[in-house]
Amino acid sequence: MTMPKFNLKNKEWGLIKCIAIPLFVGGLSAFLSGSGMEAFGLLKKPPFSPPGFIFPLVWTILYILMGIASWLIWTSGAEKQDIYYALMVYGRQLFVNFFWPVFFFKLEWYLFAFVWLLLLWALILANILVFYRINKTAAYLLIPYLVWVTFAGYLNLGIWYLN
User: Fold this and answer.
1) What is the pLDDT of residues 106-155, one digit of tens each?
2) Which of 42, 52, 103, 123 could make an SS bond with 113 (beta carbons 3.0 to 4.6 A apart)?
3) 14-31+51-162 is classed in which CATH architecture?
4) Are 23 and 60 in contact (CB under 8 A)?
5) In sequence order, what are the residues at sequence separation of 6 or more whose Cβ sits closer than 8 angstroms to the Cβ of residue 39?
């Protein structure tokens, strides 16, 4: 019995790796944000602010959806340059995503974090459009992410204004 190759072309390992990447990025970002959720609990918040325990749950789901979407692109069979470009856009939005919690929770730069979130929103939209050209399902998997970041923008701006 031989072990399966651990590469992105092996479907099972590739899917696991593609899901692990955004989960790792989000986990590391949360770790670097320190006790930011504790401070968040003390802030004045706009209406419709969910309880703090919702955030890690939603982000975990979104990171899993991102990973699945990236795997669908990676294994799509599209032209290599199209896959490369789509995954570069994906990587850029994930990079920007990594820093938002640090700016918001750790550094408490609420207005800057909001502007950064606008950049993230634009990159997510670009990511959806690029993924759509290759695999519609991959693009659709990112729509909840865009919706959540839109809601996060409302919360971010409201917290900046109220505090």
Assistant:
1) 999 999 999 999 999 999 999 999 999 999 999 999 999 999 999 999 99
2) 103
3) Up-down Bundle (1.20)
4) yes
5) 105, 108
Amino acid 39: pLDDT: 77
Residue 134: CB atoms within 10 A of its CB come to: 20
Q: How far apart are CA 5 and CA 11, in angstroms?
A: 10
Residue 94 CA to residue 87 CA, distance in Å, equals: 10
**Alpha-carbon gap, residue 163 to 161, rounded angstroms:** 6
Q: State the distance between the two ends of the chain, measured CA to CA, in whole angstroms.
A: 61
| Own/partner pairs, 131-135, CB within 8 angstroms, 24+ separation | 131/69, 131/72, 131/73, 131/86, 131/90, 133/82, 133/86, 134/73, 134/76, 134/78, 134/82, 134/83, 134/86, 135/69, 135/72, 135/73, 135/76, 135/78
What stretches of the chain show up as alpha helix (H) in DSSP?
Answer: 11-32, 36-42, 54-74, 80-101, 110-134, 136-141, 143-162
pTM above 0.70, yes or no: yes
The residues, any chain, with a CB within 8 Å of residue 149's CB and separated by 6 or more, are 117, 120, 121, 124
Domain layout of the chain by residue ranges = 14-31+51-162
